Amino acid sequence: MMSLEWWKRNVIYHIYIPSFKDSNNDGIGDFQGLISKLDYFKELRVYNLLLSPFYPSPMKDNGYDITCFTDIDPMFGTMNDFNTFMNEVQERKLNVIIDFVANHTSDQHPWFIKSINQEEPFSDFYIWVDAKSESADARPIPPNNWLSVFGGSAWTWNEKRKQFYFHQFLPEQPDLNYHNPRVRSEMKEVLSFWLEKGVDGFRIDAASHLFEDERLLDEPLAKQTKAKKNEYGYLNHIYTKGQPETFQLLKEWRALLDNFSKRDEKPKILLIEGMEEVEDVIHYYGPPHEKIAEIPMNFQFYKVTHSSTGIDVQEIVDEWLKKMPKGKFPNYVMSSHDFPRVATRVGSTLASSLQMIMMLLPGIPICYYGDELGMENCVICPEEMRDSFALRTKPSNSRDPMRTPMQWDSSKNAGFSDCDKPWLPVHANYINQNVEVKRANPFSSLENFKKLVKLRREPSILFGTFDYAFVDSNIFSFTRSIVGAKSFLIVVNMSDGETLINLNARIQSLPVAAYLVLTNPKYSTRLFTQADELFDYTQSSTSAENTLSRNTTGRPVMVPLNNLYLQPKQGMVLSYDT
């Protein structure tokens, strides 16, 4: 069998550092806390870590407003802590991808302060434009109608410089001017700095916003929008998003990473974050016979709701797979620090079924910390909110609910910190929803996650074909198979009712029965219990047959495919010989 590069073989686990593990009891996660939990990833068999920003920041946007790209914010530790982290990671053969916030800096960054003062060579490091005119009360009028992602004008007047500066996000996050070669050179130096530290890749944050049209033309109104006049969705962002120059800049960064890949004899990768239509995101793979990014992030699973049908899920999967260039690798994101957790959006049972789908489709699952536990959004009262976006607009815009502390055990603050009050409140369900409790239950979401990670090492999952088995409004199902190895059938009942289906009548090649590998925690006890005896999960082999759940006589559970019964939102992973 062919071998796969490191980033294709395994899950990418997204860590939001402030919420992962606190080591010094200040209520904020840090590198020493992260170091103390590295063996957790070995337990999960997860080897690729994606870190949220950890750079010095005034924290106007939770670390996405940076004052120095080549240092560590003291709240997360020191550069020595980072170096120790990298040494410990490399000892465990883990890979590290870091968030590269390339579009903008903090307004407290020395570059911006010097730019205000028009000190060279920093005068044009940012996008400065004269006022269009003055209003009747002598207020400067912005040069055009461009809007910030967070709402309101994307232009803020600087009284000292007597010009507007451009910011796609908060006023405290001025956009860098990538039309300036010196800016491009400085940011390549930043990439080189972290590559020298041993990082294995970068997530390019807000990549679609890196360039703007220099003509400064007004953007047209969006079609069929319900957005209000000052809201971002009110305009069609044809001059401030996905500009052609973006791809040339990314090619420059690609070339830099490739040089380090050759030197280190290990691929260095680019993830691209850009909230755009699929046909636009796909372009970040690069043109035929040329690579830009290994992983343009696929957020299409954000569309799945509790009422989604099997056909809806098929359309979501197809939208990426059919538009993806030949020879490229797909990926899937279900939750993130900016979007509600999947268990909150669809409920815990369907969330575990969707995890089966995401983990066993061809490609790379990008899992958000705590999703392996079924962590949910936490209700946070306005006085406890930390998200600047929500504080400036309305509480319902808050991203804090999906950023709450990792739930490690049933002790104070879920084992995240011994402080009196963490930076965000811990979810009230942590007593029963935590690593320690779920580790003790062979049918928990955590143990299911481990089994799914293990199944991803099977030849049929790594190298096999992908085919839909049967899809309708109730059912979403597909197979993964390769000659000479076990095949897998994944079946999910998307409906709120019980479903009985004869798969043999629809797919001639399927056997009459298949081995049950796993199902949702909600239904596991019933299916895997016989005479009050739990089936034993064998952990000693990577063989598909030995990952099956067995009773005390050693017999695996067989499920009839000509009379397959599924309860509401239930998913099953089944294996069979081909």
From TrEMBL:
Tagged with keyword Hydrolase: yes
Protein name stated in the entry: alpha-glucosidase
Region Disordered: start-end pairs: 392-413
SMART domains: Aamy (SM00642)
Swiss-Prot/TrEMBL GO biological process terms: carbohydrate metabolic process
GO terms, molecular function: alpha-1,4-glucosidase activity
Pfam family for this entry, one: Alpha-amylase
Native source organism of the sequence: Nephila pilipes
Record keywords, A-Z: Glycoprotein, Glycosidase, Hydrolase
Gene for this chain: Mal-B1
EC number: 3.2.1.20
Similarity field: Belongs to the glycosyl hydrolase 13 family.
Residues covered by the Glycosyl hydrolase family 13 catalytic domain: 14-403
Reactions it catalyzes: Hydrolysis of terminal, non-reducing (1->4)-linked alpha-D-glucose residues with release of alpha-D-glucose
InterPro entries named among the record's database cross-references: GH, GH13_cat_dom, Glyco_hydro_b, O16G_dom_2
